[in-house]
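Chapter summary example.
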Amino acid sequence: MISVGARRELTAAVVRSMYRLRHETFVRRLRWSLPLLNGIETDQYDNEDAIYFIVHDAHEDVTACARLLPTTGPYMLAQLFAELLGGNPPPRDPGTWELSRFATSVRKTREGRVLSLSPPTLNLLDAIFQFARDNAVRRLLLVTSIAIERLLLRERLDAHRLGPPARMPDGMIVALAIEVPTIDHAARRADREPTQPLAPSARERSRRIEVMYARAQFGILP
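The structure predicted for these 222 residues follows.
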């Protein structure tokens, strides 16, 4: 099941399990230098404006999560990654929100993919897009790796860069704007399932290595 809402609208157990998954993903696995306390990861953007998307079972064990923040208030791209905007001012628009802290546990779901986004990731994106459509949100901002950017484009999402990529300690990252699909993205995916798998070409093998590296470094959309 997917629970959606502000922190005050979610159970304390689900929220804490989400923070533990974020700690496992971003601190233990990716070794990001992030504030943490007692095995959980949270930051200053976990505020009353944040909307959470949390995939969990009946025992409130979380396997995926994401966070949306309106750009009319404080958000990460504006305050921490402004250099990725190419000199442009940070967006301040009620129809534009930031997507961050996106994590899925492929260890628990066993649904990892190499050259495409995994089903749990796509299901979570579908829930986020539905929320956006229901709340007049037209555009999502995301800071991610250029390899993950390619995976998003592979899913035929309307994503474009807000500025040139920049090299960070963990690799090349970029700020993206993703236009919210006007129709259910899951229905669009069903129309283009491959009928016969092809042997990977040398170029695809190279991309496979690049994507695996990006996941090892960022793991935002495994």
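To summarize the output: The domain at 2-188+197-217 is CATH 3.40.630.30 (Aminopeptidase).
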